[in-house]
Design brief:
The strands form 2 sheets. Strands 3-9-8-5-6 form a 5-stranded mixed beta sheet, with no helix packed on it. A 4-stranded mixed beta sheet has the order 2-1-4-7, with no helix packed on it. It is α+β, with helices and mostly antiparallel strands. The chain is globular. The longest helix has 21 residues.
Length: 112
């Protein structure tokens, strides 16, 4: 007989496998923060499909990826990377900005 604790570990393991497999199907797009700017400033992504957005911050200070249109807000630590899942999006433009450097950190996802 399997103990409750062992059963929980087995269930958690299979759940993680299922989540990892689902994430593997999402196309990955990358943004970089360098000198308080997003690179690229315009990123074309597929409409109608969930995407995985990896945001890497090369700066020595944190930045916050924020978008009212995408309903996302996430701090990207200095010299760190975060993952943000977005979509599926309708065709259109979805602006985002760095909340800590609003004058320079600006960009847009373009769903086509």
């Amino acid at each position: 007989m399997v103990s409750r604790s062992a059963f929980r570990w087995i269930a958690a393991f299979y759940w993680l496998l299922a989540v990892s497999a689902a994430d593997a199907d999402d196309p990955v797009f990358r943004l970089t923060i360098r000198d308080h700017r997003f690179e690229p400033a315009e990123l074309v992504v597929p409409a109608g499909q969930k995407i995985k957005l990896e945001v890497e911050n090369l700066d020595a200070t944190p930045e916050e990826f924020e978008s009212y249109e995408l309903n996302r807000e996430k701090v990207v630590p200095a010299k760190g990377t975060v993952v943000i899942f977005v979509g599926p999006l309708k065709p259109g433009r979805y602006p985002f900005f760095g909340d800590f450097n609003k004058d320079s950190a600006k960009g847009v996802l373009i769903a086509k």
